[in-house]
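Marked as duplicate of an earlier ticket. Keeping the data here for the record.
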Amino acid sequence: MEYLYFCIIMCNLMKPKLVIFDLDGTLLDTIDDLKEAVNHAMSLRGFPTFTRDEVMAMVGHGARNLMRKALPIGHKDDDMVDAAYNDFRAYYITHIDIYTKPFPGIHDLLTQLHQEGVMLAVASNKFQEGTEHLIKEFFPEIPFVAVLGGRPDFPLKPDPEVVDEVLRKAGIEKEDTVMIGDSDTDMETAANGGITGIAVNWGYRDMSSIENLKVANSVEELFFFLKIH
């Protein structure tokens, strides 16, 4: 029965013309550098610091929301969040790549997709400067059609506006587009944007328990899902 269900999933997937990737937890493992920046902002205020797993549970909705989650109860007012965010960002942008690295197999995946004529994009809730920095550093040879992060007055995922922006830049239709990410936020973004979503299970959320969801447990499986040979 499991094999039959797997075959049904595969038969319903066609090779896409455009693949939109999440960044943190999908292309790159960024948690350790994020943890250091969070703990820097907390230490400046004498607040408790966090472990890797604790920070992992808080990420995914942008750095300002990360600060709001990290700050202790009673210290989550907007002024404190703004101040902590400014300290977090100043530290993070200068220590953004100390521990960060691509997940195994990601370079090969992106290279193969590009060589087969698939257009590539990034849609992240990380602030724009940080998103661009990491893509340029770790994937300089990949010609992404769009690299979009969090920007002022621009809604974060799961709002579908980022999907619409990528589609406009790429000139590709929704039915030819797939979004890949490691969280329910990414899958909600795909659904809200009217495109196919595929979850990966090597990131920061366990996606295997979510029903009716395509989940790749390895890069090799994702290759197969995308009909890449």
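See parent ticket for discussion. The first strand starts at residue 18 and ends at 21.
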